[in-house]
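The authors assume throughout that readers already know how a fold can be written as discrete tokens. A single example would do more here than another paragraph of explanation. An entry of this sort, consisting of the sequence and the corresponding backbone structure tokens, reads as follows:
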Amino acid sequence: MLRPVRKLLHDNLNAMRAALGTLDPATVHIGLYTAIAGPPDHNRLMADITEASYTGYARQPVGSWTDAYDSTTGLILLTADNKHFTPNDAVTPNVIAGWFLATTLAGGLLLGIEPLAAPVPLSNADNTLTVEANFGFLPTGNFG
């Protein structure tokens, strides 16, 4: 099995974030979820998550990705612009369990999912959750 080197991983991430790539910032959106059926792993589908529903919620476009870079944790990453999620009112409070990347503004395919370290209540307009989306590779991972 091929063990990719850092250059290949960097090139792959940069190609994925390019126009028409899997992570094209013109089409990929960041969303929030309140529940998930099963563990947050590579087997999840959009149908497995319960998307946030507080007043004013909408998925947000990625905006842009950084160039691929070596993180201090050893991962090779892309990082998106920070996204801020704030309810408009207290009518439909949510407790957010995590965030995800999807191929479209609504529906679409689930590209990745990340649970939060602890659930975050978004119960009114005084509560904001900021998401910094990272996507990357562990160079020592098994790609076979």
User: Anything to note?
Assistant: The mean pLDDT is 92. The first strand starts at residue 29 and ends at 36. DSSP finds one helix and ten strands in the chain. Strands lie at 29-36, 49-51, 60-61, 69-70, 76-79, 83-85, 94-102, 110-122, 129-131, 134-137.
